[in-house]
Specification:
The structure is a single chain. The protein has 195 residues and is mainly alpha-helical. Helix content is 65%, strand content 0%. The chain starts with 13 loop residues before the first helix and ends in a 5-residue tail after the last helix.
């Protein structure tokens, strides 16, 4: 293989190659949107040939889905890390929701699924059942740590938290940028149902 492939910086593993290709795909989407992005665009962005790209991914949907899945997993890990900074069950619920509302729209890659130019397939992938289960299972862990008695209900609780946060993001209103007001709303209207 020539040194010009991968812009002279060949990946050390298949995992690294796929991660770099996912990054290239997301950069292409930002520039041209998902419908206009081609496998050739992604290959060019990554500094490889199309046949090399096809060794790793069958088509552009496969690479886009892999990219969104990887970004979502990293985001979920950051949500868990953020929640663990707070001591009480109630604080963890409130601050997890506020974190998702503030950080998801700012996320370098996941903000693409909120963009109107983003294809419906990518949005569905980010919010499909399996992705929701993975996210809610991860988000439930910090709650179980401080309230082991809710273990059997933790997935439902985390799903309600996630759905509420997403609704605040997708349907902007007063609480989209008034974080103190959002905290008060959660205390008054959401927390009582999650006890």
């Amino acid at each position: 293989m020539s040194n010009s492939l991968w812009s002279g910086n060949r990946p050390k593993s298949d995992t690294e190659a796929k991660a770099r290709l996912c990054e290239a795909a997301l950069e292409c989407i930002k520039r041209s949107n998902i419908d206009k992005t081609t496998m050739s665009d992604i290959a060019k962005q990554a500094g490889i040939t199309r046949p090399t790209l096809y060794k790793h991914f069958k088509n552009k949907n496969e690479i886009f889905f892999a990219a969104i899945d990887a970004a979502a997993l990293l985001f979920a890990e950051s949500v868990v890390g953020h929640a663990k900074q707070f001591a009480s069950y109630e604080e963890r619920i409130i601050e997890t929701i506020v974190f998702v509302v503030t950080e998801l729209p700012r996320h370098r890659h996941l903000s693409l699924v909120l963009n109107n130019d983003c294809a419906e397939a990518l949005r569905k992938r980010a919010f499909y059942d399996e992705a929701t289960l993975v996210f809610t299972a991860m988000a439930a862990q910090p709650l179980i740590e401080v309230r082991p008695d809710i273990k059997g209900q933790s997935i439902e609780i985390a799903e309600i938290m996630a759905r509420f946060a997403i609704s605040v993001i997708l349907f902007p209103g007063k609480f989209t940028s008034d974080y103190e007001g959002l905290r008060e709303l959660i205390k008054k209207r959401i927390l009582p149902g999650l006890q």
